[in-house]
Amino acid sequence: MYFVCGFISWYASAQPNSINSDTSSSFNSNLNTDTDPKGSVDSQFVVISSSDDHRSLVNNKLFLSKPDNTITTAQQALMVFNEGEFIENTANRVSFGFTEEVLWAVLPIQADTTTDGGLSSVIEIDNAWLDVVDIFFISGNEIVRQESLGDTEAISGRTYNARMPSVSHVFAPGSTYVVFRFISQDPMTIPIYLCSEKSKQSVMLENAYFYGFLYGALLILLVYNLVLYTYLKERRYLLYSCYLLAFTAFNFTYTGHGYWWLWGEMPSVQQWLMPTLMLCYITAGVTFTIEFLNVKKYLPSLFARRKFIYAGLLALAVVMLAYGSQQFAIMAQLVILTTLSLWMLLIGVMCYKNGNVLAAFFVPAIVLGTGGATVSSLATWGVVPYSQWAFRGIELGMLLEMSLLSVSLGFNFKEVYKARLSAEFTSRIDPLTNLYNRRAFTQLVYPIWELGVRKKQRMSIVLIDLDWFKQINDEFGHDAGDGVLELVAKTIKARARSSDLVFRWGGEEFLLFLPDTSVSDAKALAETLRLSVKEITSESITTVTTSIGVAAFNAQESGGTKIEGLIKVADKALYVAKQKGRNCVVVG
Ligand SMILES: Nc1nc2c(ncn2[C@@H]2O[C@H](COP(=O)(O)OP(=O)(O)OP(=O)(O)O)[C@@H](O)[C@H]2O)c(=O)[nH]1
C-alpha cells in the first residue's frame, strides 16, 4: 500500500485536480455540507448537527495552501485562507505525492446547535506514516486547542489513544476552523474523516478484526512453512518465510501498529524502520523468486548475473545510509519495488515457458498481489471512490498472493515427497533384477532376525551362485548375461514364499533369508531352486546351473550367533559346493 500509493501519487501529484470524485452524497444526515452556488469560502462549512453516529471523508471540503507558500503559523494560514488564497479541494484529492513543502489545510466546521455544551466529533487522519500532523482548532480568531500527532512525535503525547492520528473535540456552537499542518518525507496521503465517537470506536474495532485476521493468517502461513522447512530442509520454504516475514514487518510498520504498540516512544526508529524494512522486503522478494522458480535451472543466464542484483541492492543501502535522506531512500526504493513486481511477473512467465510447473502458481499469485496494490493506489488516486476497503486492497491482495504461493509450496511438498519416496525405494532395489539389493538387507532383515532370536525361532539363509557365469558373458555377450540374471531372479522370486526375503547379493550371487524355516525345509527349497533354474534357463540361451550353500539358525545350538556369522556359514557351504563340482546344494 505504502509504496504503490507513494509511487502512483507521485505521478498523480503532477496532475492536480485531474480527478473528480464527490463523496458529499455519502455524508450522514447529521453531517451536512453547506455550499452556496457561488462556492464562496464563508459558506463552505461542514455542518455538524448532532453528536449521533456519523463518519465521512471530508477531503472535498478542505481548502489547501498553494505550492511555495510561506505560511509559518496557524493564524497566518487562516489569514491567507480568509483572503481567498487557499485552493478548494473540489477534486477530493487524498494523495499529494512526495513533497518537501509544508501542506496547510483548512476545514471550516459549523456546529449547528444552541446548547452551550457544543457538539462532539472526532477528526481522524487515516494514515499512520505522516511525519508532522499538527491540528489547530480556531474559534473567533483564537487558537482554542492544538494537537501534534505525526509520527515524529512520541505516542505518549497523543490525547486520543488510536493508531491513526485522531483527536476528539467538542465544537462550540457556531463556526470553528480546523487548520492542519502536514509535513512528510513519505508519500503525502491525507484521508481526513469526521466522525462520531461511536463510529470511531466501531471503525477501530473493525480494523482490529481485519488486522487480527490478516496477521493471524500470515502467522499461520509462516509457521506452516517453517515447519515444512524444518522437516524438508528445502531452502525455498525458508526463503518464502523470510519474504512473508519481511512483508508482515513492513506492513506492521507503515500501518502504524508497531509505533502504536511497541516503539511509540522512539520516533526515529519509526522513521528509519520504513525504508529499512522496505529494503529487506525487496531483497527477500528477489531471493525468494530466484529460489522458488528454480531460476538456476530455468533461466541460467539470469542466475549467473544474480550477484549484480544483490550488489545493486547493497549499493542502495550504502547510499541510503551515507546520504542520510529518508525521502531519497523511500523514493529510490519505491521505483525498485514497482520494478520488482513487474520483474517477478516477467521471470515467472519466462520460467513457465521454459517448463517450470510451479510458475503456473507464481504468476497468478503475483498478479493478485499487484492487483490488490493497484486497487489501493487507484482509490488513493481517486479513480475509484476512496474507501477503507479499497485502501486495504494491497493487504487483501498480498494475503491472496501469499496463500497461493503457500499452496504451490504445498504442491511442491507433495512432489518432493513423492520424489523422495521413489528415491528411497530405488536406492534399495537392484534395477536389473528388481530384487532388494545388499543395502536393503540391514533394514529389512535385522528386525526380523532380532525378533526370531528372542522368540527362539528357526531361521535359514540360502546363498545361490551361478556356475561359470563368466563364460556365459564371454560367449553370448553381457546383455545376454543380464537376461539370464533377470530370468534367474524371477525364478527364485516365484519359488520363494512371500514371507521370504530375496536379495541380489553380488554380481551373479543371490541370497534368501527364510524366517521361521528349518534347515531341512531350507535345503528342500534350495534343491527346488537349483532344479528350477536349470530347467528354466535351458529354454533360453544356455542351461545355467547353480551352486548353493545353506545355513540355519538353531536357538538351542547357536544361541549367540549373529546374522553375519550365519551368512559366513552359508558362504563356506557354497564354497564347498563349488569345490564338489558345482550344481549342488551343501548345508553348512
Ligand atoms: N551380464 C552380467 N554379468 C555380471 C553382472 N555382475 C557380474 N557379472 C559377471 O559375472 C561373472 C562372475 O564370474 P566369476 O566370479 O569368475 O564366477 P563364474 O564365472 O560364475 O565362476 P564360478 O562362480 O566359479 O562358477 C563375471 O564375469 C562378472 O563380470 C551383471 O550384472 N551382468
Automatic annotation (TrEMBL):
Per UniProt, which keywords does this protein have? Membrane, Transmembrane, Transmembrane helix
Gene3D superfamilies reported in the protein's UniProt record: 2.60.40.2380, 3.30.70.270
Q: Which positions, given as ranges, span the membrane?
A: 208-231, 238-260, 272-295, 307-324, 330-352, 359-383, 389-411
Q: Which InterPro entries match?
A: 7TMR_DISM_rcpt_extracell_dom1 (IPR011623), 7TMR_DISM_rcpt_extracell_dom2 (IPR011622), Diguanylate_Cyclase (IPR050469), GGDEF_dom (IPR000160), Nucleotide_cyclase (IPR029787), Rev_trsase/Diguanyl_cyclase (IPR043128)
Pfam families associated with the record = 7TMR-DISM_7TM, 7TMR-DISMED2, GGDEF
Q: Which catalytic reaction applies to this protein?
A: 2 GTP = 3',3'-c-di-GMP + 2 diphosphate
EC id:
2.7.7.65
Q: Which cofactor does it need?
A: Mg(2+)
- Residues annotated as domain GGDEF: 457-588
The terms describing its cellular component in GO are: plasma membrane
Q: Which CDD domains match?
A: GGDEF
Q: Which GO terms describe its molecular function?
A: diguanylate cyclase activity
Top enzyme class of this protein? Answer: transferase
SMART domains in the cross-refs: GGDEF
User: One biological process GO term for this chain?
Assistant: cell adhesion involved in single-species biofilm formation
| SUPFAM superfamilies the UniProt entry points to | Nucleotide cyclase
Know the name of this protein? diguanylate cyclase
Q: Which organism is it from?
A: Alteromonas genovensis
